[in-house]
């Protein structure tokens, strides 16, 4: 787990070779050990990088060019195949190293459980942080078929760690009755079905706060992102997610880190999912890395 030399594999477009000069570090979390439906998101980070080669370096949304932000692609974390507990430990320790360098951590998943150890590392540094969660699924289960380490449990774990009142979920359209009841009674903030409308309402309440943001690609309707493990009908468009990223960029919240998860390339021969994901990463780099 070294940051002192460039990753030898494919990197995100315009990644810089010098980690010292970088403001952000891109890293992959190739884990799908707890997926309950369709596996394959461990191949997401690599495919997002490959798709990025088709991007323009200039963003008309942000009116910025990728040459204006220095970032280093550190490649994927080497995770022990099939071992969720050890993988979580490896991810947490890895992100702590990025934080120690004073860099913005930008993770590529992988299943959504990978966000849990990242937030643990971030919370150790930022005790007063808030958490923005953009997703189709509530991810508020305490366990799935007896397993607490599951891609359906990370937001519940995070709520218990940082306090439910500091959790803001958007776009949610799937979950158990118990999950939605927890969201109502715990003090957390959940916007069902919509993302932009919810952000317009809630971002002012997060003014000047340190915020970590996670985006599950399945918040998009399967028409826009079929390449994901648990596709859910009724989602938002790619344009709406781009607008959401821009809204966060234009707000005065202090984004301290982010991830984009659940791209599973095998289910999308058109590659529209990875292409969209790479564009979202470009916008995050230009809009959220200060």
From TrEMBL:
This is Agmatinase. Belongs to the arginase family. Agmatinase subfamily. Pfam families: Arginase. The gene is speB. Its EC number is 3.5.3.11. The keyword Chloroplast does not apply. It comes from the Bacteria. PANTHER family: ARGINASE/AGMATINASE, GUANIDINO ACID HYDROLASE, MITOCHONDRIAL. NCBIfam families: agmatinase. The keyword Metal-binding applies. Keywords: Hydrolase, Metal-binding. GO terms for molecular function: agmatinase activity. It comes from Virgibacillus byunsanensis. InterPro entries: Agmatinase-rel, Ureohydrolase, Ureohydrolase_dom_sf, Ureohydrolase_Mn_BS.
């Amino acid at each position: 787990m070294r940051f002192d030399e460039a990753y030898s594999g494919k990197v995100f477009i315009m990644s810089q070779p010098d980690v010292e000069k970088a403001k952000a570090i891109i890293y992959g979390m190739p884990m799908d050990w707890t997926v309950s439906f369709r596996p394959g998101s461990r191949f997401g980070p690599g495919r997002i990088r490959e798709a990025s080669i088709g991007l323009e370096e200039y963003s008309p949304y942000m009116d910025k060019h990728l040459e204006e932000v220095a970032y280093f692609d550190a490649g994927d974390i080497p995770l022990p195949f099939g071992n969720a507990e050890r993988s979580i430990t490896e991810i947490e320790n890895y992100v702590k190293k990025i934080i120690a360098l004073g860099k913005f951590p930008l993770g590529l998943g992988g299943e959504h459980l990978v966000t849990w150890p990242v937030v643990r590392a971030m919370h150790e540094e930022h005790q007063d942080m808030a958490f923005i969660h953009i997703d189709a699924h509530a991810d508020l289960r305490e366990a799935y078929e007896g397993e607490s380490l599951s891609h359906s449990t990370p937001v519940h774990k995070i709520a218990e760690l940082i306090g439910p009142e500091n959790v803001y979920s958007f776009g949610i359209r799937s979950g158990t009755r118990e999950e939605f009841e927890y969201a109502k009674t715990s003090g957390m903030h959940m916007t069902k079905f919509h993302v932009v409308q919810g952000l317009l309402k809630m971002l002012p309440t997060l003014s000047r706060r340190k915020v970590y943001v996670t985006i599950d690609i399945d918040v998009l309707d399967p028409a826009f992102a079929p390449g994901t493990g648990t596709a859910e009908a009724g989602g938002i468009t790619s344009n709406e997610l781009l607008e959401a990223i821009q809204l966060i960029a234009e707000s005065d919240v202090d984004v301290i880190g982010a991830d984009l998860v659940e791209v599973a390339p095998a289910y999308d021969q058109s590659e529209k999912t990875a292409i969209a994901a790479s564009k979202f990463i470009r916008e995050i780099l230009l809009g959220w890395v200060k």
